[in-house]
Write a structure and sequence with these properties.
Layout (H helix, E strand, L loop, with lengths): L4 H9 L4 E4 L26 H16 L5 E5 L4 H10 L10 E5 L9 E4 L3 E4 L6
Parallel strand pairs: 1-2, 2-3
Antiparallel strand pairs: 4-5
């Protein structure tokens, strides 16, 4: 079944964002890494993050719209989550589609975004 242009217009005009609160460890799952790295695919071993990224890529491909994915980490999971996204080439998400930031803590922090060209860059452009 093909969709008409009129069917796709509301999605293209929407200001949608995908937000994942990923601050916890997977300890209750018997997993000593951030929960987003937990392999949820029984055969594929896809991670929870990969599941969400694949969904957003399918939406992008089908409707020609890019929905940004925001991943909020905690101080305990932030660095490992950034490494995962860098090692997996941002799970195939488009440049500018993935935004990873650490929730505020007592010391405060600034949101950061992994970039393919220069590692991790803060929103203000300063290297961290």
């Amino acid at each position: 079944m093909t969709q008409s242009k009129a069917d796709r217009m509301p999605l293209r005009r929407a200001r949608s964002e995908w937000i994942i609160a990923a601050g916890g460890q997977g300890s209750r799952l018997g997993f000593d890494q951030p929960k987003g790295l937990f392999p949820i695919g029984p055969v594929s071993n896809r991670t929870l993050f990969q599941f969400h990224a694949d969904l957003l890529k399918a939406v992008r491909d089908r409707y020609q719209v890019m929905i940004p994915m925001y991943v909020m980490t905690s101080p305990a999971t932030h660095e490992e989550t950034l490494r995962y996204f860098e090692q997996t080439n941002q799970l195939g998400l488009a440049d500018g589609q993935l935004h990873v930031f650490c929730r505020m803590n007592d010391a405060g922090s600034r949101p950061v975004t992994p970039t393919r060209s220069s590692g991790v860059e803060t929103r203000t452009g300063a290297q961290s």
